[in-house]
Specification:
The mean pLDDT is about 85. The protein is built from three helices and 19 strands. It has helices at about 85-90, 145-155, 165-175, and strands at about 1-5, 10-15, 15-20, 25-30, 40-45, 50-55, 65-70, 75-80, 105-110, 110-115, 120-125, 130-135, 185, 190-195, 210-215, 220-225, 230, 235-240, 250-255.
Length: about 260
């Protein structure tokens, strides 16, 4: 993860460390975070804190714990987000954003947000790492259609050369019967964007439905985007695209959202 801090520092999180640079590219500090154990998905959470996920086991279920810690690896809070579909977390072996359970979290302008993909419950955190608000909607996970299941098999399992047929058959059995409710979350200064699974994941060009909330938790409506944005501000969406030659393109779009009353 990369982020710009409130004091104008570039924060870079890699597998083993958290590094702090000035905007001229000079490394000012480097913190080894491996002493805290294996932490996944480290991201800057504002005010000198880093959010990460740590898989723990509790009563036979594998919840993900959101750990807020300083770069010196002093844990300042732990918030366990426990999956409701234990079987999905235990068995999911097919890595597709629409079906594989995951944790999503993001940061912007002093706030962080976190959510588990398989339930519609997003937590907003304040600068101290405490829960400021929970944003919820009573929506059930949409079923995975036979066409979508076959698409996953054809694109992710069948072409996999490193595994034998017996393992491929085993992976087919781990495909969940339902899709994730959330495939990504983003924060701007004034809004929370919640990306959901495409209506038909077998059509990669189909739009991504995105729910828009104010940071008070008020649901404003839904928009559709061509893909899950890489980054968002109050005025721009940023998207990532890979060309046929393997080059990565970052595109920036102006936007304005007008909801009907």
């Amino acid at each position: 993860d990369i982020a710009i801090s409130e004091t104008g520092r570039l924060i870079i999180c890699d597998v083993f460390s958290v590094s702090v640079f000035d905007l001229d590219g000079n490394c000012l500090k480097k913190h080894n975070v491996m002493s805290a154990g294996l932490l996944f998905g480290k991201k800057y959470a504002g005010h000198g804190k880093i959010f990460a996920e740590k898989r723990v086991s509790k009563n036979g279920a594998p919840p993900l714990i959101l750990v807020a810690f300083t770069p010196q690896v002093k844990q300042v809070g732990g918030y366990v987000l426990t999956c409701t579909s234990q079987k999905l977390y235990k068995e999911a072996g097919v890595f597709h954003e629409s079906v594989t359970p995951d944790m999503w979290y993001t940061y912007s302008h002093g706030r962080s947000a976190a959510a588990l993909s398989e339930s519609y419950e997003i937590y907003l955190y304040d600068k101290n790492g405490g829960v400021e608000k929970a944003v919820k909607r009573d929506i059930k996970n949409p079923p995975l259609t036979a066409k979508e299941r076959q698409f996953i098999i054809d694109t992710l399992i069948t072409p996999w050369r490193e595994v034998d047929q017996a393992m491929k058959n085993g992976l087919k059995k781990t495909i969940p019967p339902v899709k994730n409710l959330i495939t990504g979350i983003l924060l701007s200064k004034r809004k929370l964007f919640v990306c959901r699974a495409r209506d038909d994941i077998s059509v990669p060009s189909s739009p991504v439905p995105v729910d828009v909330f104010l940071l008070t938790g008020e649901f404003k409506g839904q928009i559709q985007l061509k893909s899950v944005p890489l980054h968002v501000t109050d005025n721009h969406f940023y998207f990532k695209k890979e060309t046929d030659e393997g080059d990565i393109l970052i595109s920036k779009y102006n936007y304005a959202i007008h909801f009907k009353k």
